[in-house]
Amino acid sequence: MKALKKIRHRKMLAQEGRCYYCGLPMWDEANGYSLLAAGRKGRPPRALQCTAEHLLPRSEGGADTSENIVAACLFCNNARHRRKQPPSPEIYRMHVQRRMAAGRWLAAYLPGTGQGGSR
Ligand SMILES: [Zn+2]
After folding, report:
1. Distance from residue 108's CA to the centre of ligand 1 (Å)
2. What is the distance in A from the centroid of ligand 1 to the CA of 74?
3. In tens digits, what is the pLDDT along the chain, a chain of 119 residues?
4. What CATH number should be reported for the domain holding residue 85?
5. CA of 115 to the centre of ligand 1 (A)
6. What is the whole-number distance in angstroms between the Cα of residue 96 and the centre of ligand 1?
7. Domain interval for residue 23
8. How far is CA 38 from the centre of its chain?
9. Please, which residues bridge with residue 63 across strands?
10. Number of domains in the chain
11. How distant, in Å, are the alpha carbons of 19, 86, 112 from that of 80?
12. In angstroms, what is the span from residue 62 Cα to ligand 1's centroid?
């Protein structure tokens, strides 16, 4: 678990703090709130907590290796693996990006949309 955390942290830095799928700024224990978009107050949203995302899911034999891990926000990570048949990272990323463009993914956290709204 320690090693996984390290990989996740490295990936987060490599991705400049942004989620692999939605591109929104994430946070983790180490970086606290510093990577959050400016202007946010209070606790960072749980949805945007940085998690280690297995490109090939663990359930399919995916390993805790640098090649198989990217940093993704909790929301994107959960939403992918909630599906019975998790889509490939490429397909899922396109799906998320399309929803983002339509303002229908994590809408509450999109810049310029203010608070509230659905996600
Ligand atoms: Zn995300």
Report:
1. 13
2. 7
3. 589 999 999 999 999 999 999 999 888 876 655 545 444 556 678 899 999 999 999 988 999 999 999 999 999 999 998 988 889 999 999 999 999 999 999 988 776 654 444 44
4. 1.10.30
5. 17
6. 8
7. 2-109
8. 18
9. none
10. 1
11. 13, 6, 26
12. 20
